[in-house]
Design a protein that fits this description.
Layout (H helix, E strand, L loop, with lengths): L12 H11 L3 E3 L6 E3 L1 H20 L3 E2 L5 E3 H4 L3 H7 L5 E5 L2 E9 L4 H11 L8 E10 L13 E11 L2 H22 L4 E5 L11 E8 L5 E11 L1 H5 L3 E3 L5 E3 L1 E8 L1 H10 L16 E5 L4 H20 L4 E3 L7 H10 L4 E5 L1 H6 L1 E6 L5 E5 L3 H26 L1 E3 L3 H9 L4 E5 L4 H11 L2 E6 L7 E2 L6 E2 L2 E5 L3
Parallel strand pairs: 3-7, 15-16, 15-17, 20-21
Antiparallel strand pairs: 1-2, 4-6, 5-6, 7-8, 8-14, 9-10, 9-22, 10-11, 11-14, 12-13, 17-18, 18-19, 21-25, 22-25, 23-24
Helix pairs in contact: 2-6
The structure holds zinc ion.
Length: about 475
């Protein structure tokens, strides 16, 4: 297998990112520019993400369904804002079965239109509401500048599409699902995020308003990690979806949609990775523990392997994912390195000397610490250690974010920070799209969101000096 040397993170962050993906065998470039091949190590992370999210979606009352990849072109044109937002990046099929199609087919960039076309038939009365559906699928958005996981022409995601009787019900759902994303980011990805509302300029094409969770990456840039949209009655009106209310009146349905994609694998790499490779939080690792036997003679090998068999027996019942690395052709040192670049959270090293002492060596991926622990009760020790690693990854990411967050009231200072170490800049903003646009042109920083946690505070817009009621988060973003 080909060896990839990982560029130092501090030297060239962007090359480091690509090197980590290669070294950990997470993804590959595809024959079609902008597309991505997700390799087994990368897909294993996505499967874990799917399991975690899918469980939470079902706990909050949602069901999965599947809608077609092809959407009649006319559907996309029914919602004016939606088509305007997506038209530049839509891929269209004009020929099939050896002839030109009567109506071109769009490859879904997102599925609001095809789903709401079905909801017209599925929703008749208030008794049919709420309708809570999620779909796991691929979507295509023809991007010119692509980057593995972060921005690719085709990507995998889930898209939730719900229908409600009232504006308030839809708002409640929008916020509920944003909360699910926050929990997922914090508890599974060990990634602290900030919940907030997008500005009108940054909202989803066709939404009444959009909420997002924003995370800080290892280079202090922001990454939008998930979005939840209140669609108002826009799609109901475009697709004539009405219901009979309890009072007998015909009313348009309210909608939400929310999505989270394979982009999160990119976030995982950038938030926790280091010069040795990716670091996978234990709750998203299929292999949580790699076990490397150490021996010289065949007789030692037998004893070590026997001990491994014994102490890993309770791992299965404890739900610990592990792999015994019995590959004969590689040295232990080579194996340590191999599991490190793949981001396996914990490594167990065990040799004849450890057997004499009834112990094994535990090596943590997150901070490199090594410590001997008894073989007795090892499953319990390992489970606890995995929990500790999960928590300390979160803590480390949180401390990093705090260290790179600033409250700034001076525009030249604002620029200085962005051109220096970067970070999240909490500044006052008057609410005008013009100021937002000018700041973006001058500094490449966008308003990530208007944080829900932001306290009301009188101030002056960082750009124009007009009155402002709260701070928003500015940052350069992926
Ligand atoms: Zn202003």
């Amino acid at each position: 297998m080909a060896e990839t040397k990982i560029t130092k993170r501090s030297e060239d962050y962007s090359r480091w990112y690509t090197d980590v993906i290669q070294a950990a065998e997470l993804a590959d470039y595809a024959p079609v520019k902008g597309c991505m091949i997700i390799r087994p190590n990368g897909f294993a992370i996505w499967e874990k993400m799917q399991q975690a999210l899918d469980t939470m979606f079902k706990e909050t009352g949602h069901q999965n369904a599947y809608f077609p990849l092809f959407i009649p072109e006319s559907f996309l044109q029914k919602e004016a804002e939606h088509v305007k937002g997506f038209a530049p990046e839509v891929a269209v099929v004009t020929h099939a079965g050896g002839s030109k199609l009567e109506e071109p087919l769009v490859i879904r960039p997102t599925s609001e239109t095809i789903i709401w076309n079905s909801y017209r038939n599925w929703i008749q009365s208030y008794r049919d509401l709420p309708l809570l559906i999620n779909q796991w699928c691929n979507v295509v958005r023809w991007e010119m500048r692509t980057r593995l996981f972060l921005r690719t022409a085709e990507f995998l995601w889930q898209e939730g599409h719900t229908a409600h009787a009232t504006y308030e019900d839809a708002e409640e759902e929008t916020i509920r699902m944003l909360g699910v994303y926050r929990r997922f980011a914090e508890e599974f990805m060990a990634l602290p995020v900030i919940e907030g509302r997008k500005t009108d300029k940054e909202k989803f094409a066709g939404a009444d308003h959009t909420y997002s969770i924003e995370a800080m990456m290892g280079d202090a840039k922001a990454l939008q990690a998930g979005t939840s949209h209140h669609l108002g009655q826009n799609f109901a009106k475009a697709f004539e979806v009405t219901f009979q209310s309890e009072k007998g009146a015909r009313e348009y349905v309210y909608a939400t949609s929310w999505g989270l994609s394979t982009r999160m694998i990119g976030a995982l790499i950038m938030a926790h990775g280091d010069d040795n490779g990716i670091v996978i939080p234990p709750r998203l690792a299929t292999i949580q523990v790699a076990i490397v036997p150490i021996y010289r003679k065949p007789e030692e090998r037998d004893r070590v392997m026997q001990a491994i068999d014994n102490f890993t027996m309770p791992f299965k019942t404890a739900g610990i994912g592990f792999k015994v690395d019995a590959r004969e052709q590689y040295s232990p040192g080579w194996k340590f390195n191999d599991w490190e670049k793949r981001g396996v959270p914990l490594r167990i090293e065990v040799g004849p000397k450890d057997l004499e002492k009834g112990q094994v060596m535990l090596a943590r991926r997150d901070n490199g610490q090594k410590s001997p622990v008894p073989q007795d009760g090892l499953a319990h020790t390992v489970a606890q250690m995995l929990d500790t690693i999960q928590k300390s990854l979160f803590q480390r990411a949180l401390e990093f974010r705090e260290k790179h967050s600033y409250s700034i009231d001076n525009y030249s200072k604002f620029n200085e920070i962005l051109d220096g170490e970067g970070g999240f800049i909490w500044s006052h903003w008057c609410g005008s799209g013009e100021c937002e646009e000018r700041i973006k042109d001058e500094t490449k920083a966008t308003i990530r969101n208007i944080p829900m946690q932001a306290k009301a505070e009188e101030g002056k817009c960082i750009k124009c000096g007009s009155r402002s009621e709260r701070r928003v988060i500015f940052a350069r973003a992926y």
